[in-house]
UniProtKB/TrEMBL annotation:
Transmembrane as UniProt keyword: yes
Protein's UniProt name: SSD domain-containing protein
Domain of life the protein comes from: Bacteria
Gene Ontology CC annotation, any one: plasma membrane
Classification of source organism: Bacteria, Pseudomonadati, Bacteroidota, Cytophagia, Cytophagales
Pfam family, one: MMPL
Source organism of this protein record: Hymenobacter gelipurpurascens
InterPro entries for the chain: MMPL_dom, Mycobact_MmpL, SSD
Regions that span the bilayer: 210-229, 236-260, 266-287, 308-330, 336-362, 394-413, 593-616, 623-643, 649-670, 691-715, 721-750
Start and end residues of each SSD domain: 239-361
Length: 766
């Protein structure tokens, strides 16, 4: 089949496949699900899912903090009237299960068969203000939970439907904000926190930032392509190929029912900059052949023949770099690795189908720099090559010093994460969360499962006394600012039975008294605040609380001390406990981060080692290739340690991705060297010729990669910021190592044996 006819057929097939991709991409949705960041397959996750099925999720709530007017307290009747009106409004909203507010908090009194709920606050009776405030400050569970210690702010807690999705969640938040405005609360007067708030903000920002990053990347890459090729087709064709691969990649992701989240939002930008590599190598080689006077058809065939193997290997190593992220137990990272790896392979397919078809159908370009005038890139690269070899001792010495310093600095990296890790410290959402940590109990949930020993119920007096001891430890030593458990329920019933007197808020003294109280508990168990503390058959209880978001390092220490305390002070025949909850699951991710990173890097290194061994059958050459790619990784690890950047979910992917991308240029370099060595007996001349042939593409692709990743530093998410900054730095250091260390190491350690070359061998490299 003639090449032009084949090109038209290829374009038709690709157009049909692209149309299918457009259909699926149109169905793609943005999503942020906090639960997706739990460690998949972990026994603790299975346990928590069963636990939450019995007691409910610990993060299905929204905290609304309201500040009193300047110079006033929350006990002002006018302020309390507005709070009460807002509470009633929220309670009537769809998807709101229950609202807890200072104005609907009551002191229950049990008389006969009825319960009388006496409000703590009476805004309609100003004369009772002093009496009410005194009672509030004496009542456990109100100050620091519903009312701040300085009486300058109150909290309204909205218990929402389980796992509420973004659309109804956004609708609820919008209604609340509208009512706040109607009640006269300015934006500075109120604060919102909770999973629903983070979900809404994160998704909106993802959509906005994706557009910003793509726009910046297109502008930057277009400029670099024009600077490199100085022709319209040298700019348009790579953009068409890469945008096509993004379309295909997102189409595949949508076909598998995966949404765009905090991690997969990086896929288009990642693919845009990474996918340029093959197109630049192809066009650079094509233009070079045209410059030597070769016909368009022959130039294209030579380019495909020589570039195919090297580009295929580089696509393989890059995709493996992403595929290794599938070792992660965190679903968003798993999906990001899987679909970005697939998209990289799709980019390779398009680079060797769509790009050649378009080049074949275009007229032979007029080169801006005729061959007889020489190639400016050759001159620059030739001088660089001579300078590097002339100062090889300096290059090696500086590299060694940087390496030693980086390893020492990298040892300072710590694995630490928090609930709002990806937001900068001055982000308005994070400042709202900090408000609740400063004025109230905090936003980090705590959950402890309580199971009575054999033959006992949760209402046995020894069980309750041990539960109370644990409560006291959590409040005094662990750092909880609020706690509720079956003990809370029993104490509340005892107080209600004894006229609502605060001094009666304690556990009963005898089993006989306890039995009388238990018969009354069923009346209280219907109240929303007590409903989820004990199962109806009293076979299991729940201890729940809130505290500041102390970070996973501190939380791990607190949990270790708690487990030791429980082992030493809890009798398993009386009470058995197990730490659970969403915060505990997020903390558990840290245990897997280092292992996942090491596993991913190990797979990458093994694959590169096998490729080099197949090409050169030399262990020395394997080390020669690995060193220039590992040095930048270690230097950036040193930068992280020096800057105090913690290892967390978002930053744990940096090294695996960076190594997989950085090794691309090395694969191209050594595959070209392998080709040159088939015709050149002198290793020095072969390395120099390869340096001149591959140097331009290496520099241009690296600039595009660094520039593309640098657009991510404009993100409002800290994780995305560090991904862009640190991968960009890794690639920048990588191109320097590629152009300095690599040729020095090849000439120093590779033993070339030209006598083994007896006859022409088909070209392997590109």
């Amino acid at each position: 089949m003639p090449l032009r006819k084949l090109s038209y057929s290829v374009l038709l097939v690709l157009a049909l496949l692209s149309a299918v991709s457009v259909y699926f991409v149109a169905q793609l949705r943005f999503n942020y699900n906090f639960n997706d960041f739990y460690p998949a397959g972990d026994p603790d996750l299975d346990y928590y899912q069963q636990y939450s099925g019995r007691f409910g999720n610990d993060n299905d709530y929204v905290l609304l903090g309201l500040e009193a007017p300047a110079g006033r307290t929350v006990f002002e009747p006018q302020f309390l009237t507005r709070v009460d009106s807002l509470t009633r409004f929220i309670q009537r909203r769809p998807h709101v299960v229950h609202v807890t507010s200072p104005t609907n908090a009551t002191n229950p009194v049990l008389e006969g068969l009825g319960v009388f709920n006496v409000p703590y606050l009476h805004p309609e009776e100003p004369a009772r203000r002093a009496q009410d405030s005194a009672l509030v400050y004496r009542t456990p569970g109100l100050i620091g939970n519903l009312i701040s210690k300085d009486a300058r702010a109150v909290t309204i807690l909205l218990q929402t439907s389980p796992n509420l999705s973004k659309p109804p969640g956004d609708s609820l938040l919008a209604a609340v904000r509208t009512e706040l405005s109607r009640q006269g609360f300015a934006e500075a007067d109120y604060h919102l926190a909770g999973k629903l708030v983070a979900q809404s903000i994160f998704v909106d920002r993802l959509q906005r930032e994706l557009m910003v990053f793509m726009s910046l990347s297109v502008v930057l890459v277009t400029g670099l392509l024009w600077f490199t090729f100085r022709t319209w087709w040298g700019v348009v064709l790579p953009l068409v190929v890469v945008l096509g691969s993004i379309l295909w990649g997102l189409g595949v992701m949508s076909a598998f029912g995966v949404s765009i989240d905090l991690m997969t939002a990086l896929l288009p930008v990642m693919l845009f900059v990474v996918g340029m590599s093959d197109t630049i190598h192809i066009i650079t080689r094509y233009v070079t052949e045209l410059g030597y006077g070769t016909s368009k058809r022959e130039s294209l065939l030579i380019t495909l023949k020589e570039s195919g193997f090297g580009s295929g290997l580089s696509a393989l190593t890059t995709s493996i770099g992403f595929f290794t992220l599938m070792t992660s137990t965190i679903r968003p990272i798993y999906n990001f690795g899987l679909f970005t790896g697939i998209a990289v392979l799709l980019t390779f397919v398009l680079s060797f189908t769509l790009l050649p078809a378009m080049l074949m159908l275009l007229r032979k370009p007029q080169l801006r720099i005729p061959r007889q005038e020489g190639h400016s890139w050759d001159g620059v690269l030739g001088r660089m090559f001579r300078t590097v070899l002339a100062r090889r001792q300096w290059v090696v010495a500086i590299s060694a010093l940087l390496l030693i310093g980086s390893v020492a600095s990298a040892s300072r990296i710590r694995i630490n994460s928090a609930l709002l890790d990806d937001l900068s410290k001055n982000d308005p959402v994070k400042l709202d969360f900090r408000f609740f940590e400063r004025q109230f109990a905090g936003v980090r949930p705590f959950e402890l499962d309580l199971k009575p020993g054999p033959g006992r119920t949760i209402y046995d007096l020894p069980v309750l006394r041990q539960t109370e001891q644990i409560e006291n430890y959590l409040l005094k030593e662990y750092g909880l600012n609020f706690v509720a458990s079956p003990v809370t329920l029993v104490k509340s019933v005892r107080k209600a039975v004894n006229g609502g007197l605060l001094e009666e808020y304690r556990l009963p003294d005898s089993d006989a008294e306890l039995q009388r109280l238990v018969s009354k508990i069923k009346v209280f168990r219907k109240k929303p605040e007590f409903r989820a503390l004990v199962l109806p058959d009293a076979s299991e209880g729940r201890m729940t609380g809130r505290m500041p978001d102390v970070g996973s390092i501190r939380a791990d220490k607190l949990n270790a001390d708690l487990r030791q305390y429980l082992a030493e002070h809890t009798d398993a025949t009386v009470l058995q406990t197990r730490l659970t909850g969403s915060a505990n699951l997020i903390d558990k991710n840290n245990e897997n981060l280092t292992l996942n990173m090491i596993t991913g890097m190990s797979i990458d290194i093994v694959m590169v080692t096998l490729i080099v061994l197949v090409l050169f059958r030399s262990v020395r050459m394997t080390l020669v290739v690995l060193i220039p790619n590992l040095v930048p990784i270690l230097i950036v690890a040193g930068v992280m340690g020096l800057a105090g950047v913690h290892m967390k979910v978002s930053t744990s992917i940096i090294f695996t991705i960076a190594f997989g991308i950085a090794v691309d240029d090395t694969i191209h370099f050594i595959s070209k060297l392998k080709l040159v060595l088939l015709k050149e007996r002198s290793l020095f001349k072969a390395v120099r010729k390869t340096y001149l042939m591959a140097g331009k593409a290496v520099i241009v692709t690296s600039l595009i990669l660094v520039g593309g990743f640098s657009t991510l530093i404009f993100s409002s998410f800290d994780g995305t910021f560090y991904v862009g900054l640190l991968i960009g730095l890794t690639l920048l250091f990588g191109v320097v190592a590629e152009l300095t260390l690599l040729p020095i190491l090849i000439l120093a350690f590779y033993k070339h044996r030209p006598k083994e070359i007896r006859q022409p061998v088909p070209a392997l490299g590109g």
